[in-house]
Amino acid sequence: MWDFRPCLAGRATRHGLGMETLILGRPGAERTDLIRKLTDEGMSVHTCHDDAWGCAGLRDECPFDLTPVDAAVAIAPPGEALDPQGVACAQRARVPLVTVGGMEGDPVHRLADAELTAVDDSVAVIVASAARTANRHRRAIEEASTEFLREGEQLSVDVQRTATTLHVSIGGRFSEERISTIADQVHTAVRRFDRSASVIDVSVDRDALDTTTD
After folding, report:
1. Of 138, 159, 130, which Cα lies nearest the Cα of 72?
2. How far apart are CA 203 and CA 133, in angstroms?
3. Each residue of 43-95: pLDDT tens digit?
4. Which of 104, 156, 181, 187 is the most buried (most CB within 10 A)?
5. What are the pLDDT digits (tens) for 155-205?
C-alpha cells in the first residue's frame, strides 16, 4: 500500500550535520582545505585515496561498501585531471557528485550535480544541496514517465535524498485510482535507475493533486 501523506524533505542540518561525504582525489593542500571546511560544518568525511598506490578498495574495503554516502566530492588542483576512477564508483552508486577545481573542460564536470572552481566558504552548502536534491533521479523519473503517462497527462515530481532513502513526491491532475497506478510505475522507474537505495518512498503531494478529472 502506498503512503499518501506529503513526503518529508531531507534532514535538517546546520549545513551538513550528520552527512557522510566521500572525497575523491589524492592528498594535497586543496583536499586538506576541503576536508577542514566540510568537517567544520558537521559533515563526516571519508577518502578514497591516501599516500599509497591505488584506491582504498584495492587495498582494503571501499568506503561505498562501509558507509551510506550522501555525496561525493571530486577535487584536484587547478589544471589537473579529476579522478575518473572514484567518479565512476560514485556514478554507479547513483551518489550526487560535486566537482571542485581540476582542469577546465574535464569531462567529469559534465557529470557533476554542482561545480566549484576552487574551495571556498560556500562548499558545504553546495555539497549539502546537491546531496538532497537528487536531480539525476528526478530526470530519470521524467524520462521514464514518457512510457506510462497518457496523452495530456502531466506529472509533477520532487525528489529528496538521504544516503539510504529516496523520498519521491508526485502530483498532477489525476484520479485517486490513476495516481496510485502512477505511483507504482514511478517506484519501478526509480528502482531501475538506482539499485543501491535501501528505501524508496513514493508519496502523493495532496496540495499538487487535482482529483477533479475522470
Report:
1. 130
2. 16
3. 999 998 876 666 877 777 888 888 889 999 999 999 999 988 889 999 999 99
4. 187
5. 999 999 888 899 999 999 999 899 999 999 999 999 999 988 889 999 998
The residue type at 164? T
- DSSP lists the bridge partners of residue 99 as 74, 115
Q: Which amino acid is at 130?
A: A
- What are 75's three cell numbers? 577535487
Separation in Å, CA 72 to CA 22, 75, 99, 122: 5, 10, 9, 16
Architecture field, domain 135-210: 2-Layer Sandwich (3.30)
| Residues 6+ positions from 31 with CB-CB distance below 8 Å | 23, 25, 47, 75
> 207-210 long-range contacts, Cβ below 8 Å, gap at least 24?
207/6, 207/171, 208/156, 208/169, 208/170, 208/171, 208/172, 209/171, 209/172, 209/174, 209/179, 210/172, 210/173, 210/174
Q: What is the pLDDT of residues 5-53, one digit of tens each?
A: 333 333 334 445 678 999 998 889 999 999 999 999 999 999 988 766 6
Q: Domain extents for the chain?
A: 20-131, 135-210
Scan for cell 518512498, then name that residue. Answer: 201
CATH architecture of 20-131: 3-Layer(aba) Sandwich (3.40)
User: What does pTM read for this prediction?
Assistant: 0.78
Residue 39 Ramachandran class (φ > 0 left, ψ -120 to 50 alpha, else beta) = alpha
